[in-house]
Specification:
Layout (H helix, E strand, L loop, with lengths): L25 H8 L3 H4 L3 H10 L1 E5 L4 E3 L7 E7 L2 E9 L2 E10 L4 E2 L1 H6 L6 E4 L3 E7 H10 L4 H24 L2 H13 L14 E2 L3 H8 L3 H13 L3 E4 L2 E4 L2 H10 L1 E2 L2 E2 L1
Helix pairs in contact: 7-10, 8-9
Length: about 260
């Protein structure tokens, strides 16, 4: 009679875990920032100091970078993802929040406080998952004070933001809704003119209809109507949470003239 063999026990399989994508290396992030117009124009000494002092910081969607009134902590370069810059105002018991702009690669922010040492003027939080390069304020200011010839290059960050702000204010004041929205889309497609390669453009814009409406002070209904007209013209495709530019040349012409097809905005 053959001996009875016990069934062989198979080892239990460990549950598979979904691995998070590896964090980007500082080298990869700097490769993006170095393609920016401002950084590309820096003297080697200043560029090397920024790279030496910078630390990588990751933000999850919705995570705060800083809030209005926070003490200055340094300057940041956005290497991946995008940040919301917003402001708030209180009227009696109501608080209203305005989305001012989206900060995308290879843009820098935080330089105002570098100059005046005052608290943060606006709120900044992650619109999507973000990878940032953070240069702390104290060592940067100390280095600049011992190398004062480089303060001018830091000031160019301020003047560039001032030009952009004045242009946006003019558009907000004098342009009709159609033209204002098209100008903003063209600006975003060109990376806010921040790339050293001026021919570099984005086909996909990581902005929702709601965000676009809030940035331009338009109703959701008006924004949707304009986007549908641009889509019917074949210049844009409205996707979920984003927009796809199909014909940037036509969109730029329409932004300059304020005309969509046979309709003048």
């Amino acid at each position: 009679m053959q001996p009875t063999q016990a069934p062989i026990q198979q080892p239990a399989l460990a549950p598979t875990r979904r691995r998070s994508p590896p964090a980007p290396s500082a080298h990869d992030l700097w490769a993006i920032v170095q393609a920016g117009r401002w950084f590309r124009g820096l003297p080697a000494e200043l560029a090397q100091e920024l790279q030496r002092a910078a630390r990588t910081r990751m933000l999850a969607p919705g995570e705060w970078l800083f809030r209005r009134g926070d003490a200055p902590c340094g300057i940041y370069a956005v290497a991946r993802g995008s940040l919301n810059i917003s402001g708030t105002a209180s009227l009696q018991e109501q608080t209203r929040t305005a989305l001012l702009t989206l900060v995308e690669p290879p843009m820098w922010l935080g330089e105002i406080a570098l100059f005046d040492g005052e608290p943060r003027t606006h709120d900044a939080y992650a619109n999507t998952a973000c990878a940032l390069l953070h240069v702390p304020i104290a060592p940067l200011r100390e280095w600049l004070n011992t190398h004062p010839e480089h303060w001018r290059h830091m000031a160019l960050l301020l003047t560039d933001k001032l030009r952009t702000s004045l242009t946006a204010l003019e558009e907000q004041t004098v342009l009709p809704a159609h033209q204002r929205l098209m100008c903003r889309l063209v600006q975003m497609a060109h990376g806010h003119e921040q790339w050293a390669d001026r021919q570099r453009t984005h086909r996909e814009l990581a902005v929702s209809q709601e965000q676009l409406a809030r940035m331009l002070g338009l109703s959701r209904q008006t924004t949707n109507q304009i986007l549908q007209e641009l889509q019917q013209a074949g210049w844009l495709q409205v996707r979920r949470g984003r927009l796809e530019v199909m014909d940037l040349g036509a969109l730029k012409t329409a932004a300059a003239t304020g005309r969509i097809g046979n309709t003048t905005s």
